[in-house]
């Protein structure tokens, strides 16, 4: 970490921690992540001069805690889940329909309602593949600030709306505000050896995912290694609840810090378009899930979380809070991201040149 970023990062984490703690006293779903996000985003919008002009939240810190979430998800991959894999065929087919429909709906929204130029609207419309869409959009000369704002707002709006909708659906808030533990097992029984094994899996998984350039490698690498360890029976992976809360706090603070330096008119416009975009995608997802529930036994709420176009890490946290199998949900989101990136690569050659 750049030492010049150390104090601002520490201050943001303290602010995020306060926001998360206050949110945990309410019925807000996923309070430690959303509370931290709202607190840090509000601060960076109101006081942009408080952070250095070149400040960026440390990527290594965020990656480490994303890896922690990956291990938690991988630890829930069981032989029973593997045996259920054929049941997911229909939902993966449904996702194959969802991605182009969501892409088309977003393109209309950003072109017609937002007035964005065709190239910028195209990359803003991607229902996944945040980093890939930003990288390709920059190479094509689109408005990179608008693109970055819209892609991050897509994730943020989804992770704020979906837990609230799920809370209404199940009649109780998600996450620690509801008293739900998002780790499995009895926390008091975790041994130092289990903590060391978990730390080893985090580090090995990170190296594995990043070296092999697996999509979302910081999450999927630890997930795959943890799943292999769990299925092999070599060890039982458990992580302390406080570590999962800290992971939510770091991820929420990192997302909130992205609002630094944004002009308010751009932000207001971006939020309005994001709500329109996310609403359209959730309605498409809802329609497909209602059809799918007649073909397969997956619970409707699990299906909807599997289709909601948020970030892979954040949607996995929502699945953990709902006590849905996060490994199953992560598989669906991984497939959505791969489909979206494939579509971006296939269609970008037809875009008009911006010089």
Q: Total number of β-strand segments?
A: 0
How many domain modules?
1
Q: Residue ranges: pLDDT <50 for 5 or more in a row?
A: 176-188
What structural class do helix, strand and pairing data support? mainly alpha
Counting copies of identical and different chains, the oligomeric state is single chain
What letter string, H or E per element, gives the SSE order? HHHHHHHHHHHHHHH
The name CATH uses for the topology is Na+/H+ antiporter like fold
Kindly, what is the distance between the CA atoms of the first and last residues, rounded to a whole number of angstroms? 36 Å
Instruction: Assign an overall shape.
Output: globular
SS field, number of helical segments: 15
Under CATH at level 1, the class stands as Mainly Alpha
Mean pLDDT across residues: 82
Q: Give me the CATH architecture, please.
A: Up-down Bundle
Strand percentage: under 5%
| Residues in helices, as a percent range | 55-70%
What's the gyration radius in Å?
20 Å
Q: Biggest sheet, open or closed, and with what strands and sense?
A: none
How would you characterize the overall build of this protein?
The chain has 15 helices and no strands. The chain is mainly α and 355 residues long. It has one domain (3-185, 199-350): Na+/H+ antiporter like fold (Up-down Bundle), CATH 1.20.1530. Residues 176-188 have low confidence and may be disordered.
